[in-house]
Design goal:
The complex is a heterodimer of chains A (106) and B (272). With 106 residues, chain A is mainly α. Chain A has four helices and no strands. Chain A is elongated. The N and C termini of chain A lie far apart (42 Å). Helices cover 63% and strands 0% of the residues of chain B. Classes of the chains: A mainly alpha (106), B mainly alpha (272).
Chain lengths: 106, 272
């Protein structure tokens, strides 16, 4: 199974999810607890994806360079907490990553 | 010849027979043009938020070890940012195909809930509308659509509003991914643009940490995903998501906590 098939299968499955309840609207009611859990899906998914990606960058580098992505992530968290703006993560994190990568590889 | 399901009635007896009628035109673009445009306008603030995300996905598609076109196709086919990120990243990391598909679908499970909510407003609509509206259903179009349906008694105006919002979102999303994929292939490696995604995700997560249930979900999902880094096929991501959701639901319902006082029922903490 190659990348094309995977994208196609994930897309088809996602479309089935979208259509699942629309087609059976008159017969099915969701329990309220499932409604509540819907709001938690995206944050949980984002957190799992973010830490896996950061861990991949850290583990894929030798020691001095490995600190750069870790520090960039910490700076990004602090920047968002400080400013309340989502974009602060990228605006503060990327320069931190570049500067530390340059510094540790010099 | 009458259909066999029709009951026999005596002459002169009143019967309430439901006669199948032709569906009225669901949307007339001439009549509902203003609602369509209003939907597009209502989507504008969302576009500012999602456009950089789409750009990042395009860049990651260009830099990943997969055909760029396959990465771009995640836009029109999967049409869900976080699931697209997971698909591209896991394919780039060489994860097993079934693990990639399962992860993308686990992330997109919320679409079932959105589908259930929209079904309430789409009862009696023709199949072509459900197929199209369902395809365009994602977080921003759901949010904009549900808000309008709640205010509008004329469903057809609500449909036009939803369609205007959803179409402008789709066009923007597909376009920014293409821009990112085109520009991303020519950008130097030292920029390490693949790191934009975790940083963008951090930006999306941190402002939501004020809610106890969300904070619990995020922390548990992150901890479990890190603990499961060595799990084969990158299944640690899916395990982390499921664990995070379970922890968040438990926090919201008070499972595992001492009994709260009657006035402490909210899961919201004070705002900054």
């Amino acid at each position: 199974m190659n990348a094309w098939t995977v994208v196609l299968a994930a897309g088809f499955g996602s479309y089935l999810f979208r259509m699942s309840m629309i087609g059976a609207a008159d017969r099915i009611r969701l329990p309220p607890r499932l409604d509540d859990s819907a709001a938690l899906v995206a944050p949980a998914a984002f957190a799992a994806l973010a830490v896996t990606s950061i861990a991949g960058s850290v583990l894929g580098s030798s020691m001095p360079q490995a600190l750069a992505p870790l520090a960039a992530a910490v700076v990004a968290v602090l920047a968002v907490m400080r400013t309340g703006s989502s974009y602060a993560a990228v605006l503060a994190g990327m320069p931190t990553l570049w500067i530390l990568t340059l510094h540790t590889s010099a | 010849m009458f259909p066999p399901s029709l009951p026999a009635v005596a002459p002169g007896e009143l019967v309430n027979v439901k006669v199948p009628m032709k569906e009225p035109t669901i949307i007339s673009f001439m009549t509902h043009r203003r609602d369509f445009v209003a939907g597009m306008r209502a989507m504008a603030p969302w576009l500012i938020g999602v456009a950089p995300f789409g750009l990042v996905i395009g860049v990651s598609a260009a830099q990943a070890d997969i055909p760029t076109l396959a990465g771009w196709l995640t836009g029109p086919l999967i049409y869900a940012g976080s699931a697209q990120v997971a698909t591209i990243q896991m394919l780039d990391a060489g994860a097993a195909p079934y693990a990639v598909i399962v992860t993308a679908l686990v992330i997109n499970l919320r679409l079932v809930l959105y589908s259930g909510a929209m079904a309430t407003y789409w009862r009696g609509t023709p199949m072509w509308w459900r197929l199209l509206g369902g395809y365009l259903l994602i977080d921003p179009s759901f949010a904009v659509g549900v808000e309008r349906y709640g205010q509008e008694s004329d469903r057809r105006r609500g449909h036009a509003h939803y369609l205007g919002a959803a179409v402008v979102l789709w066009v923007t999303w597909i376009a920014v991914i293409a821009v990112g994929a085109t520009a991303g292939a020519q950008l130097p490696q030292w920029l390490r643009l693949e790191f934009l995604i975790p940083l963008f995700l951090i930006g999306e997560i941190v402002p939501k940490l004020r809610q106890v249930a969300t904070r619990r979900a995020v922390l548990v999902a992150a901890a479990v995903a890190v603990a499961c880094l060595s799990v084969p096929m990158h299944l640690g991501i899916a395990i982390g998501i499921v664990a995070g959701i379970a922890a968040g639901v438990a926090a919201a319902t008070g499972i595992g906590r001492p009994a709260a006082s009657p006035d402490a029922v909210s899961t919201e903490e004070g705002h900054r």
